[in-house]
């Protein structure tokens, strides 16, 4: 085929497409990298807080069955999963809004509450999706530095509320530092936040919490019309690849979230697998307990080596390394462990298979010894 117009044509000029200026201010979301393959070494990706256990056989059976009907749209109202969650949590179904991951629900929350220039308040460091979703919605992220022990500084956060604040995000346990807020301090904080400002308790790692002082978020929600609980099937329930999460919010808020939701955002496989996972929660809880036991084992070993590790309540371990962050991440990578470095703040490493956890402890021990010279 010849086309002599093509041979001497000038390269096409790019169209002057208008993109939003908000994009310029945005960091790209940094996904967990896949593990670097090292000769003779099983590589572990411990950078994304994924569950190391494969899906349960009962969940796989349900997925196979659901796969036969993917020519149909999913149930847009997510009826069966919503009913199952309502029963499990003891709340009316009207209070539940689902989405493609709890990140999807968080997007609904921001778009349902914020106009241009409104403020979303959260601790920093915290979940890196927060500033991205906030900025893309045209709202302004207000980031309050974590306090001592890498914990939320709830006093400073209460003081940072302005008449433009529409949403406050409390991440407990906090990603990436693994610390929780206490029940009493959360209560005192909520007393100070105006009752027309929505407060989201992001409990992506709730199932891994064993601190008796942690808040009962559903009870807090029950008592306060401006409190929303955000949860996910991605972490403890091991469905990260399917994308399904939910909010528990009082009715006017939940209804607004459903309006703000992407139509058909929760796919049919995700709906089916989430229901099957709720039905298999006893089996899944056994796995969660194993991961919590591994977390405790790793944290104890690291402290024994001399690491100053804050109280850890999720499925990962936080190393507050400061300027040594990149060097430690490289040391891990050299041994086939891909961890998640955060600038010059520290490294987050997911609690995974015992072999990966053992290797992490070994690398950390050698790194600390070398650093001390
Ligand atoms: C992983 C995570 C989420 C949500 O993940 P989804 O897969 O979108 O449900 C939400 N919040 C925090 C703090 C997380 O770490």
From TrEMBL:
Cofactor: pyridoxal 5'-phosphate
Enzyme Commission number(s) of this protein: 2.6.1.57
Species for this entry: Phycicoccus duodecadis
Similarity-based family: Belongs to the class-II pyridoxal-phosphate-dependent aminotransferase family.
Physiological role: Aminotransferase that catalyzes the conversion of aromatic amino acids and 2-oxoglutarate into corresponding aromatic oxo acids and L-glutamate.
Subunit structure: Homodimer.
UniProt GO MF annotations: aromatic-amino-acid transaminase activity; histidinol-phosphate transaminase activity; pyridoxal phosphate binding
Modified residues (N6-(pyridoxal phosphate)lysine): 235
Protein name: Aromatic amino acid aminotransferase
Gene: pat
Domain Aminotransferase class I/classII large: from-to ranges: 46-362
Single Gene Ontology BP annotation: L-histidine biosynthetic process
Alphabetized UniProt keyword annotations: Aminotransferase, Pyridoxal phosphate, Transferase
Reaction catalysed by this enzyme: an aromatic L-alpha-amino acid + 2-oxoglutarate = an aromatic oxo-acid + L-glutamate
Enzyme class: transferase
